User: Fold this.
Amino acid sequence: MIDLPRKDVPERKEKSIADVVKRMNDRYHLTQKHNEIELVKQWGEIVGQLIAKHTASVSIKGKTLYVTFDQAPLKNEMFLQRETLMQKVNERMGAGFVEKIFIG
Assistant:
C-alpha cells in the first residue's frame, strides 16, 4: 500500500531553535539592537575607562557609529582618532561592523 500525503494536514517542517531565533531576530530587526547593546557593554574595554567615563552616548545605525562626549577637548581628540577607533571597534565586534564614525 502506498501512503499519499494528505492535503488536509499541513506538512511538519522541523527547524532547530537556532534557526527560529535567527528568523525572529531578522523579522523584528533585533540583531542590530543586540549588536548595539554588545558594543555599549564593551565600550570601556575598547576605548579605556577614562574615555568611557566621559562618553555621553554610544549608538549605531546601520554601519555608522554615533558617539558623543561631554568634554570638547576629548571630542576633538576622538574626532582626530576616528580611524583608530574604527579599527578597535571592528577588531572587537567583527570585520565590517562599523564603516563610518560620527563624533558629536
